[in-house]
Amino acid sequence: MRSAYELIEKAGKMNCTVGEIILLEESEMTGTPREQLIERMNQNYIVMKESVEQGMTGKWKSLSGLVGGDAARMEALRASGKSLLGDRMNQAAARAIAVAEVNAGMGRIVAAPTAGSCGVLPGVLLTVRDVTGTSDEKVIMSLFTAAGLGMVIAERASVSGAEGGCQAEIGSAAGMAAAAAVELAGGSPEDTGHAAAIALKSFLGLVCDPVAGLVEVPCVKRNAMAAVIAVTAAEMVLAGIKSAIPVDEVIDAMAAIGRQMPCSLKETAHGGLAVTPTGEKIRNTYHQ
Amino acid sequence: MKAGIFDMLGPIMVGPSSSHTAGAVRLGLMARKILGTNITSAKIILHGSFAETGKGHGTHFALIAGLLGMQPDDSRIKQALEIAEKEKMLVQFENAHLGDVHPNSVKFLLTGAGGEKAQVTGCSVGGGRILITEVNEFAVEFTGEYPALVLQYLDSPGMVAEITKILAVARINIAQMRVSREGKGRKALAVIETDEKIRKEVLQAIGELAKIDRVMFIEPLN
After folding, report:
1. Is residue B139 within a helix (H) or strand (E), and if so which, with residue range?
2. Is the reported ipTM for this assembly greater than 0.90?
């Protein structure tokens, strides 16, 4: 079975990023030239940036009308100078909400790793880019590192809410984003593992309980929380903090928790927030 | 499950759900490819989470969009039902328990313009990735990532060798292969995923083998 430990060790030995290893492997395995893979990732990055821009306009409304306009509200707060998080973290959260709102409105996004969690990586990476002043090329390379961590998660656990609950979607996105963020800030391959582990641990056990079965409540706001946690995890690792549990073992724990989670809490809308009095009321209104 | 880079970052898609919207479009697309012609009528049976929360995720629209040949990033997915009506494709939905299958499973019963029939079952396994698990009541397993050759034939000694010999001569490399049958000497089905596209004359040569009943070539998604 694929392990993050092996990827990180290989990258360390070859003095390159985890993303570089993944890129080499994919190019070799599929026979696709490296430049073509990078160009395809660039297309993803372009759509990510577009979806942030579109979402920040605040003009998106979901079909149900439950979500929309919150990214613009966050930006208005930031512009007023009254943000508690500060400009940068406010933007990370606002951008994550922006993309998730575009998704809920049946707009175009990049699943990262899923549509429900599509806001986390754009929110985190565009913000880390602004903070560090790094180039778009480096951000694109960091997306390969994020993908590498995601591939390990998909093989050892799952990235599907129906299989593993919200931890598998939003948790995986946070882990992938934390790994990419720490790399962009100058972290080592080993640091990417610690950052992913710390972020992922914060989401273990998180259930998938969408109100009325829609990818709206609580999904959109969870994207903002995951973005903030991912940056915090990267910050901790940059400060020299390590994860006590190695990332592969955290992923295995996530897989086990997902198997133990009842079906009612795995995207069926039969438990959690979906069956609160207000959740039921929304469901009845929507399904009339 | 093994996944590639662009399963993790991607697809570029219309929301709201990679498993329930984009995956559903791809399942519809694969079913359409397996039938091989335009669809005049489709019965769509939803299982598990597809049945429970499909409506909220636009799963119904997405499945129809796929059957119509749309890609997961097509902005017309929302209007799939109207488009199906215009194109005279009859669609009927049903919720049912399909047995011990993935929670996001669907079964298509399709009829084509020339009366062709196909039964396709598949599931959406997360991030827009899919797995086709049954074709015309035979258990199969393929993802739509490779060109796939689906062959129905009469089980007989040497049949697999004859098929693979044709592929070998045409310099087509087999990536994965799976064979199943109803019983000894009865109907059998082979799914052969290849690295290269399979040319018309190669398909023809396989189709001319004595015991071959049906040859389907399914181009990969994307």
Report:
1. strand B138-142
2. yes
Residues of chain A positioned with their CB less than 8 A from the CB of B77: 106
Contact A154 B53 (CB under 8 A): no
Angle formed by the axes of helices A189-201 and A247-260, nearest 10°: 30
Q: Is B104 on the interface with A (CB under 8 A)?
A: yes
Q: Work out how many domains chain A is built from and give that number.
A: 1
What's the CATH code, domain B148-218? 3.30.70.260
CATH number of the domain encompassing residue A190? 1.10.4100
What is the extent of the structural domain holding A117? Answer: 4-286
Q: Which of 99-158 (A) contact B at CB < 8 A?
A: 102-116, 118, 121, 143-144, 146-148, 150-151, 154-155, 158
pLDDT tens string for chain A (288 positions)?
Answer: 789 999 999 999 999 999 999 999 999 998 999 999 999 999 999 999 999 999 999 999 887 889 999 999 999 999 999 999 999 999 999 999 999 999 998 889 999 999 999 999 999 999 999 999 999 999 999 999 999 999 999 999 999 898 999 999 999 999 999 999 999 999 999 999 999 999 999 999 999 999 988 899 999 999 999 999 999 999 999 999 999 999 999 999 999 999 999 999 998 889 999 999 999 999 888 765
SS3 B60: helix
* SS3 at position A125: helix
**B194, B174 Cβ separation under 8 angstroms:** yes
* Class of the CATH-defined domain B8-136: alpha beta
Distance in angstroms (rounded) separating the CA atoms of residues A179 and A201: 13
Tell whether B126 lies on the interface with A, counting CB pairs under 8 A. Answer: yes
